[in-house]
């Protein structure tokens, strides 16, 4: 028998035995134990109230934390920018002040005057 035929036979619809649905419903009813409708409504009502109170009380705290973090990141960006500008200016000033040592020929012909001259 080819694989397609075996698969078709394995997946063919089969009717359940007589009374199957009744036995399943009886077993579910026996194992699930009935919960009083009023108790479930009362529990879900209190859970909803607790969730609302939690949201009302913690919402402003979470927003305050968000704003604080946002302000801290903005301040950090400003500090980084200020440091970059200061570094650039200091490097430019350093290049203007400190020049490479220039060697000049001495009149006596030794090749180096021994002084760091400025052009």
Brief summary:
With 119 residues, the chain is mainly alpha-helical. The protein is 69% helix and 0% strand. The protein is elongated.
Task: Describe what this molecule looks like in 3D.
This protein has 119 residues and is mainly α. It has a domain at 50-89. The chain has helices at residues 3-10, 20-32, 37-97. The termini are far apart. The model has no long low-confidence stretch (mean pLDDT 83).
- Specify the helix fraction band: 55-70%
Instruction: Tell me the β content.
Output: under 5%
For the residues shown, what is the average pLDDT? 83
Radius of gyration: 43 Å
- End-to-end Cα distance, whole Å, is 101 Å
Sequence of secondary-structure elements:
HHH
Separate helix tally:
3
* Main beta sheet: none
Shape: elongated
State the total count of DSSP E strands: 0
Low-confidence stretches: none
Which secondary-structure class do the elements indicate? mainly alpha
Name the descriptors.
119 residues; mainly alpha
Q: What's the SSE blueprint?
A:
Blueprint: H1 3-10, H2 20-32, H3 37-97
């Amino acid at each position: 028998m080819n694989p397609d035929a075996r698969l078709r036979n394995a997946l063919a619809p089969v009717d359940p035995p007589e009374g199957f649905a009744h036995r399943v419903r009886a077993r579910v009813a026996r194992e699930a134990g009935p919960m009083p409708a009023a108790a479930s409504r009362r529990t879900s009502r209190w859970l909803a109230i607790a969730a609302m109170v939690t949201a009302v009380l913690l919402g402003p705290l979470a927003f305050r934390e968000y704003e604080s973090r946002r302000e801290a990141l903005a301040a950090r960006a400003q500090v980084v920018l200020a440091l970059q500008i200061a570094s650039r200016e200091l490097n430019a000033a350093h290049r203007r002040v400190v020049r490479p040592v220039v060697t000049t020929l001495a009149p006596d012909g030794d090749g180096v005057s021994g002084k760091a001259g400025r052009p």
